[in-house]
């Protein structure tokens, strides 16, 4: 029989305010001890730490407390899967905010709240415009988490800057039964119709294609369709990867030596695209060990929580509910259910080079546009260029957040 142990806070480092407020070091240590207790099937210690966390990390507190509350929920979910009786332990937690299903207008405004996505839009669009100049047809395969929110600004820029008449624009997206936040409240057919109509107002002829395909098999249906219907004469194939490749299973989920990520990139290379843009969050969430994964997640997800204090309450709830969904997936899920498997910039660069892509420096024009965009947002946002890998990195208070890279076949 397991003896009940009394949790002694003096065992942990002295609380030290960090980042957005709260005792971040102390709370992180409690979360890590809780994760260890859960993995060790120590129900008594798990119960005690969950109780302490529930009392020091209100879901409506400062940014560090709200962050800790999100991890508390995730750990409770994981613990309950092992010990169902724990479900009544923290029953007085308020209900979690539900994920909002956005209208197109709401999603566009949501994306504009912070530079998180706009940063990648600007860097990618500048690279795409340069790469497709002189082509009569531009085929963009948009693998984007934000449901084509990048495309209207790209259409505007194409109408202003490319040859007259502007090229035929083909836009291909994937639809899947698997969905990730942010969610949208219309079908892709409706979304495509809106984009085609918008392009018409800019005197651009646009074709919108939806291909049923899923991340879980490395978008194999998409790649097959692209092989069957090769590019026409004077057509530029552009593949825009905006925070979606993380959902392709990596090595730990496969029995073969090559992961589906590797297979996807090598198949993509065989299609000889004109350009590939890769925008991702710079964090490693692939560790098989819960404690290491939680530590990495806590030391990254404080950033979005820290940036939301200036937002209106409803906007903040929407934003933090989305991040909390990611946290629960990282902490509470395992196997194929754990889809949030983000990798660092360094690892993605290794993957791209192994697939025989070469990096291209982000355009100086894009750097200037990013700087101008950052001036519209809260103090604390910044950017840096990495000469060794030709990437552009969005930062918050000096910490890397999102990176943007541009690739061509070699």
Description:
With 410 residues, the protein is of the alpha/beta class. It folds into 2 domains: 139 residues, no CATH class; 253 residues, 3-Layer(aba) Sandwich (Rossmann fold), CATH 3.40.50. Strands 2, 3, 5, 6, 7, 8, 9, 10 and 11 form a 9-stranded mixed sheet that branches. A two-stranded parallel sheet has the order 1-4. The protein is globular, with a radius of gyration of 22 Å. The N terminus is likely disordered.
Stretches where pLDDT is under 50 for at least 5 consecutive residues are: 1-21
Largest sheet: 9 strands, mixed
Residues in helices, as a percent range: 40-55%
> What structural class do you assign from the helix and strand content?
alpha/beta
SSE string, helices as H and strands as E: HHHEHHEHEEHEHEHEHHHEHEEE
Q: What's the alpha carbon Rg, rounded to whole Å?
A: 22 Å
Mean pLDDT: 90
Give me the CATH superfamily of the largest domain: Vaccinia Virus protein VP39
Total number of helices: 13
> Distance between the terminal alpha carbons, to the nearest Å?
63 Å
Report the CATH architecture of the largest domain: 3-Layer(aba) Sandwich
**Strand runs, count:** 11
* CATH T-level topology of the largest domain: Rossmann fold
CATH class of the largest domain: Alpha Beta
Query: Beta-sheet strand percentage?
Result: 15-25%
Overall shape: it is: globular
Q: Can you tell me the number of structural domains?
A: 2
Question: What's the short story on this structure?
Answer:
With 410 residues, the chain is an alpha/beta fold.
